[in-house]
Request: fold
Amino acid sequence: MLKYIAKRLLIMAVTLWVIVTLTFILMISIPGSPLNSERNTNEVVQANLEAHYNLDEPYYVQYMLYIKSIVTFDFGPSIKQPNQTVNDLLGRGFPISFELGIITIIVALISGITLGILAALRHNGIIDYLAISLAVLGISIPNFVLATLLIQKLAVDWNILPPATWSSPAHMVLPVIALATGPMAIIARLTRSTMLEVLTQDYIKMARAKGLSPWKIVLKHALRNALMPVVTIMGTLLAGILTGTFVIEKIFAIPGMGRYFVESINQRDYPVIMGTTVFYSAFLIFMLFLVDIVYGILDPRIKLHKKGGA
Amino acid sequence: MKKKLLVFLMAAMAIFVLAACTANEDAGTETNEEEENTGEEENTASGEKVLYMNNGTEPTSFDPAVGFDAVSWNPLNNLMEGLTRLGEDDTPQAAIAEDWDLSDDGTVYTFHIREDANWSNGDPVVAEDFVFAWERLLNPETGSAAAFLGYFIEGGEAYNSGEGSAEDLGIEAVDEKTFEVTLAEPTGYFLHVISNPAFFPVNAAVAEENSEWFAEADSFVSNGPFTLESWEHDSEMVFVKNEEYWDADTVKLDKVHWAMVNDTNTEYQMFEAGELDVTELPSEMAEQLIDEENVVIKDQAGLYFYRFNVTEEPFQNAKIRKAFALAVNQQDIVEYVTKNGEEAATAFVSPGFESPSGNDFRDENGDLVEYNPEEAKQLLEEGMEEEGYDELPEVTLSYSTSDAHKAIAETMQSAFSENLGIDVVLENTEASVFLDDQKALNHQLSRSSFIFDYGDPVNFLESFITDSSMNRTGWSNEEYNELIANAKSESDEEQRWEYMYEAERLLAEEMPIFPIHYYNQVHMYSDPVSGIVRHPVGYVELKWADKSE
Reply:
């Protein structure tokens, strides 16, 4: 197991290096510069600014500086917000995105799995149809449409909840619903279909024959196997949601880190582009790694160390 | 194995719970703050006046020399104050300077700073604070994008371009409360220029101690109507009335709360839910909301226009350029496409600039570019004959990616097709790429806009002299260059305006660019709010704002 983990860590480092290098190449090859403004500043000022951000160095030097900044995890100042460092921006935005993300994931998991189980147990019954309709709706309504709708109805028309910003638990309700509905629907569908499959297995029949209560069968015997596909999608889902979502954060004016992924590229804010990319990639790679480990524990048939050792 | 699984699940649960706990701890502190806020709102009922504004995003910087954009300067304009401030009538009024003398040749201003002008930390505002701030603005090391505004000052351009030195700048602290400025040329609108936030003073003592004094609320010292009480980056700012401000009696609001909501739909919904006092109109709803009673439309000096590239066929020919310009019906565009109450532009300089004789520049110089499909067709034929074209070379119309620009571009495309029988190709690129291409003259016909930096028509007109980085048309005209040079140095105001009128007419004759619409500012205010002033050129003023119970 340890050997496997060591090997995985090495591969993760290499993957990260490839991502960083590709990002750097793409970043410098898109036209436009972070210092390009509507009105040109004079040449001396321009040269001073370029020197300040090391943009006057040859590309290989800039590349080495980026690698250095990644190793030391110090990305320097943002070019567009000169009084803020990239670490400031990430340090401020990530905890908020993470908070929103964790709550969303928990809500999506609990409601999705419950819905999936209920649908599977009442296969072709009313609950099944309701759950599936809900799931189809959840998948097909984009979250930004749902978000606007929720604000309009619950905040503006009925005045039950605050429309936007991030300052109290009440402010969290709408964004969490908007963000959790999609993943909930996916989880519900996955749970339902694998659950249906698992329930026809011999060992479940065996359990029934032993006279175990239906709930015990479901929760203790069927659910563990039914959750495998859910675990599979959890890696990407976690990384995606925990590092912030551009659209939902923008609509609800949540000061998370989602917007930096988009805005830094529009503004060619090189240090922020590198900072967010490295952060997201490292997070994603680590989540996928965790998922693999969880597989091994949930399903003894998957032997990690052997696969790794071979 | 079962045990292992159990241990793992327990561990996973523990991690989740801990994570949720840390998250909840944050939430807890925020909740407390929220409770405090609610407390304040209750105070509002007992007489405290709090205005709820939206700044859109985090200000780029509150460093007066660096934050050269509306999101920085709109709030900063209410925290600080320069020698002059634009009044409710949009003209410069005495502010930190009580009064001033102007030398007979019009180049030396002597400003007398108010005895009771103080910083929020109690220090007096002195002439040295202005010397410090203005030197910093022009120092090439500062890298200020607004430095060009200081080129009116003697030695300003030389210092900023690394040729001169700070000692040669025409600014001097004669004594503690007397500040003398020597200009490169007589500049009739200099008092308007220095109302701009780039010219705000900086408390030299504070800045020498902490060069990042403007980055956080704790270290921020102001000299304007409000002080910065708190600043939660990316989320909100709270301003409180500045009791040290010389004109504190005029300021009626106790607090201004600034949200940072970067989505117009959300902003409008928050306004509807009573969480904001001011909102812009979401573009999809502009048409249905614009006639509402609480909507205020103000001019914003500036122009939405298109540039020809005169170095590329077929736009080397002035008649062909004019043909394209006259084929577009600007009135249709504002009425059926933008629908935001803008005024269709029939010339280049936007309305609102008052001449020495008291007339509006626009009324004086009249309509110069009027929709006329017949004349357009005629001009196209003549132009094609001059160039020996049987068929017009293909024309590509470029704009930076945005739904609003696209809608206008498509309208123009159909106008060219209908009125000239020419099918132009539309092309859009991402904004930064677009700007690069436009500067490099890679376009044929491309979208542009201009917003005035200071209150004189020459600000816009001088963009089109040869070698200006704002020209981007390849157009170069000796006569025009001379007119602009005169308009910048003539001390007789009447004559100076004559030069500008003539320059604008020449622009219409040669048509290196053509106008679409002037800009405006459309805002919806909640009922209790009054007295928010927005200038055609300048930044929002809350000094006179009030909120009734």
